[in-house]
Amino acid sequence: MITVLASGPVVSVQDLGRPGQRALGVGIAGAMDPHAFRLGNILAGNPETAAGIEIAASAFSARFEEDAWFALTGGDCAATLDGMPVLPWWTMRARKGQVLSMQPPRDAAFAYLVLAGGVDVEPVFGSRSTDQKGRFGGVGGRALQMGDVLQTANSELRHNASDWNDRGFGLSPRFRPMPEEETPVVRVLIAAEHDALTAASRQSFWESIWTVQKDSSRVGYRLGGPRLELKAPMELFSHGILPGVVQLPPSGQPAVQMADANTCGGYPKIGVVIAADLGRFAQLRPGRQVRFECVSQEQAVSAARDQQAYLRRVEQYVALARMMRPAG
Amino acid sequence: MPDIRQLRFSSMGESALLCDAGGSTLELQVQERIWCLAEIIGQWPNVRETVPGMNNLLIVYDSMGLSPTTLKHSVIAAWSELEVVPRQGRIIDVAVHYGGDQGADLSFVAQHSGLASDEVVALHCARDYVVYCLGSQPGFGYLAGMDERLATPRREVPRTRVEAGSVVIGGAQTGVISCTSPSGWHIIGRTEVAFFEPARSSPILLAPGDRVRFHAESITP
After folding, report:
1. Residue A83 backbone zone (phi > 0: left; psi -120 to 50: alpha; other: beta)
2. CB count, 10 Å around CB of A243?
3. CA–CA separation, A161 vs A177, rounded Å?
């Protein structure tokens, strides 16, 4: 159990989301960087479906009301536990009464605080993720606030944690956020209206350096760069869309749909960010730059497989680390 | 009896296939086929979900178990062999306060269509709208059958906040906003009917095949 001492508008309970409900107009929600979130659950010894806390754009602090094992993944928040530094990508035990303090993540957009046992809130439509648009899920369908008390779901997992070494252990993540001066490349599959763009605009899309705009959010990321144009105006009938879809609204500036995106849309679609890269893309804070690279179906599926294989390997290593007890 | 519309396919990322039977206008007969197709495909192994749209269907599948080419061929076969089972939907009555503060864009839509505000309202209320699909937000029904004279292209810059219960027009479509949210559609009125209520035992009011019937509680030009 933890008590939230400080929070912000983009801090919320998330899990891997609620896929499969788009036909009701219910979006997936869930962690913006599912890969980092999954690693958090693995480190904390949780099942994949456990819920955690996603932190972005603001400081966050909480007091542990009982001994608990926790993990921090994603962006570096200069975290401290009672003033002692906690490294990102680390898992360790907190003692009752200790305060975990985190600054806004600085090298990436989102950080994840995962508690052993997972956050216990009532699932809605099968998931504990917060849907702020629909105002349901998580804690009252809203961001976390000072004074919120969060229980952990599986007290058995939490108690087993007391056998482990307090200082914990960490992970050297495969994908570290790139330094600000570098421009990451994100892989994209061509979508239906790609060829409806003018030749010059298609070239601009693939060759330009795009900048993540300030009004980006969990709903969508707006990109600033050259104005893109269609060969002729088009108004499409509404159709299902997914996170990762890169739309071209009338403004001429691409908008990438993210976890809280609408389930249906009618804007032209230039491309779709591949699943393996969407979390990495989501971690780009406003002001960061990005370039796109065109890939094939095979490359996209191969990247996803590769990422899954990595997660399985981490699971095995973490299981080994847990078996090692300190001497004496 | 019109020919069966051919499906046009496009991929949407590595795990989704968009099947589009749309022509220049929306057709209820096509939508009935889409509903039936969705039910059949939804049972297939490796298919994660089916999302009916306006005369189209998005299929989300497990890309590690199924290739888009195989899926496409199976869909073509299912579409041509389809036996359409008609749907019996309910009629949902919706009382609307049109115009004024509750319908800030009523005069814009009127101007765009070259009609008076009360003519826009009369046309909006004149027919029942079939719920083609749900989407965009929980419980938002995409309604077809709007008089084409009312069609108004979506706003260039969406509003950041449109209240739940707002009756809206976007392009050739009309609907009622189910969750307060940003929207690029034009607001012509407001209703108290709640199309989405997470605490309700049936959180979502509409189902594809239902018919929505608007009537004017008041009109403020």
Report:
1. left
2. 26
3. 30
Kindly report, residue by residue over A132-150, the tens digit of the pLDDT.
Answer: 988 999 999 999 999 999 9
pLDDT at A168: 86
Beta carbons of A300 and B14 less than 8 Å apart: yes
CB contact under 8 A, A25 and B178: yes
Per-residue pLDDT of chain B (221 residues; tens, 9 = 90+): 445 779 999 999 999 999 999 998 889 999 999 999 999 999 999 999 999 999 999 999 999 999 999 999 999 999 999 999 888 899 999 999 999 999 999 999 999 999 999 999 999 999 999 999 999 889 999 998 899 999 999 888 889 899 999 999 998 889 999 999 888 999 999 999 999 998 888 999 999 999 999 999 999 98
CA distance B179 to chain A (A): 6
Taking an 8 Å cut-off on Cβ atoms, the answer to whether A192 and B12 are in contact is: yes
Rounded to whole angstroms, the maximal C-alpha distance in chain B is 57
> How far, in Å, are A20, A165, A314, B67 from residue A301 at the CA level?
20, 39, 20, 10
Give the three-state DSSP class for B19. strand
ipTM of the complex: 0.94
> Alpha helices, DSSP H only, in B19-105?
28-41, 68-80
Three-state DSSP string of A227-296: CCCECCCCCCCCEECCCCEEECCCCCCCEEECCCCCCEECCCEEEEECHHHHHHHHCCCCCCEEEEEECC
Alpha-carbon span B57 to A18, nearest angstrom: 20
Three-state secondary-structure class, residue A41: helix
Round to whole Å and give the CA distance between B139 and B131: 11
Q: How many CB atoms neighbour CB A183 within 10 A?
A: 15
Statement: residue A322 has pLDDT above 80: no
Place of tokens 């629909």: A134
pLDDT computed for residue A143 by the predictor: 98
Q: What are phi and psi of A242, to 5 degrees?
A: -135, 160
Q: What share of chain B is helix, strand, coil (3-state, %, to 5)?
A: 25, 35, 45
Task: State yes or no: pLDDT of A159 exceeds 70.
Answer: no
Specify the pTM.
Answer: 0.91
- Those of residues 167-226 in A touching chain B at CB distance below 8 A are 189, 191-192, 219
- Residue A129 in contact with residue A27, Cβ under 8 Å? no
* Residue A20 touches chain B, beta carbons under 8 Å: yes
How close A44 comes to chain B (CA, Å)? 28
CA distance A19 to A166: 36
Chain B 178-197, CB below 8 Å of chain A: which residues? 178-179, 181-182, 196
